[in-house]
Design a protein that fits this description.
Length: 488
């Protein structure tokens, strides 16, 4: 049994080693294939070596010319230029033998437009991108592009109707905007009116006011009730979002004291040798005074003493002094004109709007003692009445001293006549001083010295810039602004 098994195993072993698919057969086939691969590889190497040698020697090689690659970076765009809100750019290339192409907003193959070098692409708008390439008939080069941008800030000019105004008035500002690129965004622009002389910056939220339409130019009415120096700040915005701040010239807002000042208030005025106080006798346009737009002020006390008349029996001489008394008193008052603030002056008791007014006729009477003097001396007038009544109203009549009123009164009865100049006596009562006395036995002259109380007319374009009208803090005057504030 054992011999049989051994014979079977021996047969199997011989078959595996020497059979058609045996180990010996497989080893022989592998060796053959390896030899073939070495031979083929050597043949290929020989071919490559031969080809290289032929190419180096100028013979043999491929019969086809390889296609040249498309040039890159050969398409250029000029810087964007703007005109009337539209942009343009020029496409150029120095390459020849290719088709120059462009399109706007994309690179879809079907949208390329053939063009030539130096062509200007127009009607472009902010944010558009223009693409360009070279085309060889089969394929296109790498694209070049330019995006339409606006990097230039807009501009604004501010024109003011004035540079100073009272708190009850207003200034009109005209703002003219300019932008030659992407265009203006006026509704998106802002403005503010304040006392800040420096820049507010370009933050839109810093500005309090907007423009409600896109009109150009824009008009703004500027007003405030608080005195000071103000500035208009305009933040101009264009469609690209560029911003610029424009600041106006200074605007001086003056406190409107006209609604506060009143007759009887003290006012700070000085002229001549008088350093005392002055009082507003008439506001402008006082109907009883007829003083127009000029405030009239009166000295609180007498400024000096003035003599009128002469102690003489020569009535001709003293008569001339009597007849010219109103002119003399007004001339003395004119010495208190401060030309910076005032235009005229008169003696209290003269007519407020006609200081040299006098009686139309000289005095005449049927009394026999007047026969020699009829028609020689000025008659009575009522000049004093307007000022006198106003002073009583303001309680400024009594100064505890005598002062002249530029007005005359003639008194006559059967015993004689007197030609007088009105005055306020030391008790504050209306009285008079007799310059000429006429009696049956002749006439005589008299001389009196009484105080002068000037009334000064201020300029109509005067400014009141401070004070409260009290004696301790009188209204303060100023002429620097050139604005007419003292009007009703």
């Amino acid at each position: 049994m054992t011999i049989v098994i051994l014979l079977i195993l021996a047969g199997i072993t011989i078959s595996l080693v020497f059979g058609p698919n045996g180990v010996v057969k497989k080893a022989q086939e592998a060796a053959n294939k390896t030899n073939e691969a070495v031979i083929n590889e050597q043949a290929q190497m020989n071919d490559v070596t031969s080809t290289i040698e032929n190419m180096l020697n100028g013979v043999g090689g491929s019969s086809e010319t390889p296609e040249e690659p498309l040039p890159e970076g050969a398409v250029q765009f000029s810087p964007v230029e703007w005109e009337n809100g539209k942009a343009s750019t020029m496409i150029t290339t120095s390459e020849e033998g290719y088709t120059l192409q462009y399109q706007i907003g994309g690179i879809a193959e079907e949208n390329w437009i053939d063009t030539t070098s130096g062509y200007e692409i127009t009607d472009l708008t902010l944010g558009q991108t223009v693409y360009g390439r070279l085309f060889n008939g089969t394929e296109g080069s790498k694209t070049a592009n330019i995006t339409v941008e606006d990097l230039i800030k807009p501009n604004a000019q501010i024109s003011l109707s004035g540079t100073s105004v009272e708190t009850t008035g207003s200034i009109t500002a005209t703002v003219t905007f300019t932008d030659n690129e992407s265009g203006l965004n006026i509704i998106g622009s802002k403005w503010d009116y304040n006392t800040n002389a420096g820049e507010m910056g370009e933050e839109v939220g810093s500005y309090q006011n907007s423009f409600t339409n896109d009109n150009n130019p824009q008009t703004i009415t500027l007003s405030t009730t608080t005195a000071g120096t103000y500035y208009l700040h305009v933040l101009t915005v264009d469609n690209a979002g560029n911003k610029i701040e424009t600041i106006s010239s200074p605007i001086t807002i003056i406190q409107d004291y006209n609604s506060k000042i009143k007759e009887g208030d003290y006012i700070n005025y000085s002229s001549g040798n008088y350093s005392g106080n002055w009082i507003i006798l008439y506001k402008n346009n006082n109907s009883s005074a007829g003083n127009g737009e000029n405030i009239q002020i009166i000295s609180e006390d007498i400024v000096k003493n003035v003599e009128i008349g002469e102690d003489t029996g020569n009535t001709e001489t003293v008569g001339e002094l009597y007849n010219t008394a109103i002119t003399k008193l007004n001339k003395e008052a004119e010495n208190y004109i401060n030309t910076t603030y005032a235009i005229d002056a008169r003696c209290v008791g003269s007519v407020p709007n006609n200081k040299n007014a006098e009686a139309l006729n000289n005095f005449s009477s049927n009394y026999s003692f007047m026969e020699r003097y009829n028609g020689k001396f000025k008659d009575s007038d009522t000049n004093y009445e307007i000022d006198y009544e106003q002073m009583k109203k303001l309680n400024i009549v009594n100064l505890n001293t005598r002062y002249w009123l530029a007005s005359r009164t003639v008194l006559i009865d059967g015993r004689g006549a007197s030609f007088n100049i009105y005055k306020i006596d030391q008790n504050g009562e209306l009285s008079n001083s007799t310059i000429i006395s006429i009696q049956s036995d002749g006439g005589a002259g008299n001389k009196f010295s009484n105080g002068l109380r000037p009334v000064v007319s201020l300029k109509s374009n005067i400014n009141i810039i401070g004070g409260d009208g009290s004696k301790e803090n009188p209204w303060k005057l100023d002429m620097s602004m050139g604005r007419r504030l003292l009007t009703t």
